[in-house]
Structure prediction request, 764 residues.
Amino acid sequence: MKIRGFISAIYLFLLAVVLSCNVKKYIPEDEYLFKGAELAIQTEADIKGLDAIEEELAELLRPKPNTKIFGMYVGLWAHYKGTQEKPGFINRFLNKKIGEKPVYFSQVVPTRTEELILNRLENRGFFYSTTNAEVTRQDKFAKVDYTATISAPYQLTEVEVLRDSLEIDKEIISLMKETSLDSGSRFDLNTLKYERTRIDSALKEKGYYNFNSDYLIFEADTNISDSARLFKLYLRLKSNVPKNGIIPYTIDSINVFPNYSINENGGKIDTVNLDGKNFIQGNDVFKPRLLNDYILIQKDQRYNPRLSRLSSNRLSSIGNYKFVNLRYEELERSDSLGHLKANFYLSPMTKRSLRAELLAVSKSNNFAGPALNLVYRNRNLFKGGETLNLTGRIGYEFQVAGGENRKGLQSLELGLSADLIFPRVIFFVPIKEKFSYSVPKTKMSISAEYLSRGGLYNLNSFSTRYGYFWNANQFAYHEINPISLSVVNLSQTSAEFDQILDNNPFLKRSFEQNFIAGINYTFNYNKLNDRFRTHGYFLGLGLDFAGNTLHLIDDILGRDDGKFVGLEYAQYGKADLDLRYHLNIDKKQTIATRLFAGVGFPFGNSQSLPYIKQYFSGGPNSIRAFRIRSIGPGTYRPENFDVNSFFDQSGDIRIEGNIEYRFPIVSLLKGALFMDAGNIWLMNENEALPGGKFTSSWWKQLAVGTGVGLRVDIQFFVIRFDLATPVRVPYLEEGERWGNTFDIGSKTWRRENLIFNFAIGYPF
Prediction:
């Protein structure tokens, strides 16, 4: 009876909604509500690409009618209710949020729409087409049915360039050899505009500095056949083109101002000439021989906008200049060519800066605390665009809500790092880089960290890197570190932690192999940031190999102890693949997906990956329905597991998938619905972690969670709140892993099944 009553209530509610959304009674007596228009296409012949033409014509139907939701004018109803006398707070609110002004038939002009359709058809080569509009009025509603009869199109026979004796005519004839105007193609105004733009761009790269696409004109001759719809095209320059628009320009001089400022003292300025470029500066701010390599344009070279743009991009990529402006000045000469002077105005950034960041850290394992970052930056350190970054970090975390066995746990982290970045390739032999888009940079890094975890253990680590990074284009990023060294030292372990290591030989070995020497490579291809792109993609690839060179040295020296300078080194290979796809439904709604797969292969004297190289799962940027680093490996679960588990669970393999629907709520507040799935596994069997080895039935061991989120999306950063609950728990018995209870009213259930995450930025 309760179920029947509930269903009846739903039916009554839906009926009330339908009746309340009836807008006919609000339509004025002298008006008809416009229901929209439909377009029917009739053709006189087979037409290639008819679907695209029909879609283009349908966009011309104006105005658009009011929106319907399940056949009801909900937005229009909200408008009518919100604009009546004494509408009340709720009606005013609904009108503000979802209200739509009515679209009446009096706003429709069918003859104007017919003109637009005919004009568009003529632009596409369908001359002599016809249209018809039929209006239907019924019961306070009106609609329009358009019919377009499309004639057979005019087809191209040939294109001829009408030439004079000018050099530019020869260039145009040469460029027309690559035209998209093929014999038999349909007349299309867009294609003609594209051809003019293509020729304009190509001529500019050949030195025609003042040329403009408007200087070109296409003329069509349709009187070449009495029996078929054919036309011939003639391309020529307009008769009123100015002289400076049809002559090529050369660069007579190049001036570079490395320390440009409107307040610079002209009396102290000195000039250095190098490779035909004048480097003009007062004090020696930037070494001319280094700055010269970033500029691709040369003296006596013809003007080329592509090289000009790339030169500016390369100078900007140094990271030393706030503004990079390239300005050309026309020079008066008596010959038949044009002449230019190129001026690079470079305005440096502040040389030294100090930034302090005070952070509040909150983790899903109930740890929270403050952190302080201090960053000192010194630009143009050696007058070649070098940048020195010194970073100091101190962080303290404590357990906000401790369990019976884990009270008073705390963590202290201290770190100091230095990065020296050269905006060029530094190698033991000179290398002249050939990348025109951006300049590869050399990065030397050194860092030291100290981690004290609640009196359980102290971890000291030291690392250094030497490598290169660059952007191949606006989407592709490469980074390679041929030298990557890390030393990790575990000290001052407690008896409790020693017992954990004794019970888990794999974990113990991961801490003992405290020397890592290898090479790593990162590649990112990112097309996610363009909000106007319907389909966004991201591909991330990471490769990391260690121990091979040291093992080769051991073989040559006849040693097999697996040590280097007294330290045991790790041997492994590791690969990560990160795939992301964003479907931008509109500018504010997105369906974001991610698939991550990572695997590490320990070999030689290693049975597992080093601790700092292992994978973890769970947390605000992983599977959000589980606490940070609390999933896996496989079906493993610690014996003393509770919601405040402190120790990390790690593995050699990680697979995760995520999907999230992002939508606006109000102003800067955005919402999200999401689902995450994944786990980690071990490459080799570990008796201390039963169920952790990767098998062919890995997909049966996936953890799954779902939830909702709120985001404060400010232009430059995002503050994220996620509330999630697990729906599949991998460590339960196989038939009990899918959740079958949802008791939001139970305090115990909420404590064990609702996970709150706070983070900065989107998870993917």
Confidence is low (pLDDT under 50) at residues 1-20, 402-406. Residues 265 and 282 are 8 Å apart (CA to CA). The longest strand covers residues 476-491. Residues 2-20 form the longest helix (19 residues).
